[in-house]
């Protein structure tokens, strides 16, 4: 069973759902309009509704995918398309609150700073020193994983402290399965 540690930015995804939601309603209205209309108009409605529902489905999938989760003895980092990057829990040393570039596409916002969560990985984990990740979501370099606050839940010192507490508990559990938090 997967335990979610850091969620995606659900506010941004909810905002992104508004337009496809409205388009799907328009398409459904054209498709199911009770007054006789031209057949091609119903086909347009069906097409609009189908495309909008596919987009909504993709957004729902993003809504459900966390940025950081844990399954068994592994941390799962969801920072690229496809499956997560799996790192053994024993190699995760801690979480830090940082600050970095927002990487938003707007030229004025590129200089804006956002909060980041920085995860330190053990030096002995040489195979996890570098990974390719989606630059808008974060960076992975020299045993540090940086997750941009733009695309995850709001970051705070309290959240970072919770992550470090949970990390200590999870590492204790994985060393001694008899230990319960």
Task: Write a brief structural summary.
The protein has 181 residues and is an alpha+beta fold. The chain has three helices and eight strands.
Describe this structure in words.
By secondary structure, the chain is α+β, with helices and mostly antiparallel strands. The protein folds into two domains: 9-64; 68-175, no CATH class. Helices cover 38% and strands 25% of the residues. It is built from three helices and eight strands. The strands form two sheets. It has a four-stranded antiparallel beta sheet with strand order 1-2-3-4, with no helix packed on it. It has a four-stranded antiparallel beta sheet with strand order 5-6-8-7, with helices on one face. Strand 7 (138-141) and strand 8 (144-148) form a beta hairpin. The longest helix is centred in the first third of the chain and has 26 residues, at 39-64. The chain is elongated. The protein starts with a strand and ends in a 6-residue tail after the last helix. The mean pLDDT is 89.
